[in-house]
Amino acid sequence: MDAVKIPTTRNGKATFQLIIDTTLDLFYKQGYHNTTIANITETAGIGAGTFYLYFPNKLMLYKHILKLLQHDIRRTIAAKVSTVEGRYNKEKEGIKTFIEYAIKYPHSYNIIWESLYIDKNLFIEYYDGFAKRYEIGLKQSILDGEMHDVDTELVSYILMGVSNFIGLKVLLNLGTNNNDVEKIVDQVMSIIKTGIFK
Fold it and tell me: How far apart are CA 179 and CA 189, in angstroms?
């Protein structure tokens, strides 16, 4: 038995979500390795048997949460990006939406990046999946004449890196001037557009 069992009843769905919400909070505060199934069930106020109705072990619960985050981030960004035209505006909206998502759900960074220390392949699959989907839009933008003919795989990682670390700067208040997300994104886009070298 190694699959997550998605409940179909209203009570089952509520308990399933309670387990996920409780685990998100514990993973954020304590980390994956310092959180036990007993911690999760005690905090959620459920029996261990209830946990095992849905999840065979802690790793499968973590993988399920990682997949949920990945889908939610993609869906949130895609919805916002679809409201604007042109690659430049789509990139701007995408970076802004990602930063706002990170501010709203600060646990997302911890849980995603901890995958590197839980199972490196999870980390690789997470970002490789994002990059491959990113490339689709970049390739279309090249065909539309909005971008130079660049290595879209490399550019997808460059842009993901920008989003990730600008998000960290704002979320962790690294350095200065982190209060105005709109202004930060405008500056980032200006640098992306014009470059940094004279």
Answer: 17
Distance CA 159, CA 133 (A): 13
Structure tokens at 12: 């089952």
State residue 2's pLDDT score: 65
- pLDDT band for position 188 (50/70/90)? very high
Answer yes or no: pTM beyond 0.85: yes
Pick the CATH number of 10-56 from 3.10.20.30, 3.40.50.1820, 2.102.10.10, 1.10.10.60: 1.10.10.60
Residue 195 backbone zone (phi > 0: left; psi -120 to 50: alpha; other: beta): left
| pLDDT mean over 158-167 | 96
**CA-to-CA dists, residue 97 to 9, 38, 124, 147, angstroms:** 33, 36, 23, 22
